[in-house]
């Protein structure tokens, strides 16, 4: 596939000959830095790129023997949601803010099954919400997206995507902006969705931890091209492209302390100027002093030493470099030497000082309404008796899982939400 855009700086080739296959029941993870063409490739494949500066989309997108790029718009619409579905990375923005969550899912069901009654669609939606782990699914059917946390909105998007049991499920950064525990839950839901539908999953991400947890196959992208592909174990244990190896060396480790990671030097390539040779050559230690890397672009080809493929003139040297976690450098050779901290870090203000902001026993509750008369059938205790003090010049870190009340507390402080109880004092007033 090739995708090009027209910009004031010139023609940008965002996707440059990208190809991959996905099989039923398998998860392919497409991984790479921001701007490497991951999301653009799937948006173009589904006909979802509607920008005025789109210059060219070429190639083939074969689904069950049919090229999606050649379908009339009406036929493509019939297939979207039925044969292939997408989970977008910003679930809150992707959902319609003025339509009830349950109705949004039911709409997709009834579009593809004209004989489905409203009551039957509602029951199916309740089943889907329960399947993806939304609590009180029958009551929450009638709620709006702003009444859901980020993690819950992502669950709704997954329910919407799997409603018609598609053959291919595309997840574009499904765990972005979610805390680690909720990320794990969402990945479990995705795994369940794949098992329930038998769909092939394309997982687009820049999070290598997510890749290691969920993927069967991996395609590493750089500069609009796939530079390495293979099974997840081979990619993580013996990368055959210097860019993949550099990504692995930049991963932090949890089993050691006080280590300095090795970032990838330089910047991603300017896609308005397609390089003659390897796009990674200016940042690649293997390419130093080698004219072939600058003058000749390597093609993606199968490796004799692995089951995957790489686009590198010297894959054996990339494989010989330190792998995941081996690149971190200790900050000090003496394990007993303390790590320096910024001056003043962790210093507490005197207890007698008047705090800039003080919250006393803040409470915020929201009703869960259902029925014809929208009566409150339950209450969400979003904030329940929270107190805190922030001194002048101080910083308070508010940490917790998605849906535990962090954002609601901030809205209470700004009076964007009226508190149910408690006090909010600024400089004592």
TrEMBL record:
**In which family does this protein belong, per the annotation?**
Belongs to the ABC transporter superfamily.
- GO cellular component terms listed in the entry, alphabetical order: plasma membrane
Topology with respect to the bilayer = Peripheral membrane protein
- Which residues does the UniProt record annotate as the domain ABC transporter? 1-248
Query: What is this protein's name?
Result: ATP-binding cassette domain-containing protein
Where does this protein have compositionally biased stretches of type Low complexity?
335-351
What keywords does the record list, in alphabetical order?
ATP-binding, Cell membrane, Membrane, Nucleotide-binding, Transport
Checking NCBIfam families in the record gives: oligo_HPY
Q: Name one GO biological process term.
A: peptide transport
Q: Does the keyword Protein biosynthesis apply?
A: no
Cleavable signal peptide: none
Q: Where is this region: Disordered?
A: 320-351
Q: Which SMART domains match?
A: AAA
Please give the InterPro entries that the UniProt record associates with this protein. AAA+_ATPase, ABC_Ni/Peptide_Import, ABC_transporter-like_ATP-bd, ABC_transporter-like_CS, Oligopep_ABC_C, P-loop_NTPase
Q: Where in the cell is it found?
A: Cell membrane
An example of a Pfam family matching this protein is oligo_HPY
According to the UniProt entry, its GO molecular function terms are: ATP binding; ATP hydrolysis activity
